[in-house]
Specification:
mainly alpha; disordered N terminus
């Protein structure tokens, strides 16, 4: 009987060692999963912040684009006003009484012509800035779509890892209860 008791003890010690080994393997798996899980939420948060920043930048660029469009409209209005003034001054030149009035009207006409040139130059500049701003907006939209796709993938990965972690933690808890 003494021999059978020692065999039983060895068997239970053997079982305990196997269980301990299994527990260590589970803990190692859980640690690896926790490491993966620890990095992914940070990556997800960073991507969300980056997308939010890009959306803000996009909104600002669209606001600047609207301002440039308004500037072009204002310059076009100033240009048409200058043309009207030139027409009026040219009519007044036909009814002048002395050279001084004629010279003053000629200077006003020249000034309005310069105003038209300035408006045209500013319109061209604004259109160039609009084109550049639109290119930036398009590029930002592409990057946002790319980041959102990446974010969606990372969130799916994170959800899978969280499910694995939950299953592993449940299995470990059950194992500890059965000890």
């Amino acid at each position: 009987m003494a021999a059978s008791k020692s065999a039983t003890k060895e068997l239970s010690v053997d079982d305990k060692l196997k269980q301990l080994c299994e527990l260590q393997q589970m803990d190692t798996k859980i640690d690896k999963i926790q490491i993966l899980k620890g990095e992914l939420p940070i990556e997800v948060k960073d991507l969300e912040d980056e997308i939010e920043g890009m959306n803000t930048r996009l909104a600002n660029s669209e606001g600047e684009l609207a301002e440039l469009e308004e500037e072009i409209n204002n310059r076009k209005n100033a240009k048409s006003l200058a043309k009207e003034l030139i027409t009026r001054y040219e009519k007044q030149q036909n009814n002048v009484k002395n050279n001084r009035e004629y010279d003053a009207l000629s200077k006003e006409i020249e000034l309005q012509k310069l105003e038209i040139q300035l408006c045209e130059k500013k319109i061209v500049d604004a259109k160039a800035r609009i084109d550049a701003k639109q290119a930036v907006i398009e590029e930002t939209q592409k990057v946002i779509k790319e980041r959102e796709k990446n974010l969606k993938t990372k969130k799916k990965e994170l959800e899978k890892i969280i499910k694995i972690v939950e299953k592993s933690e449940i299995a470990e808890l059950e194992w500890e209860k059965n000890k």
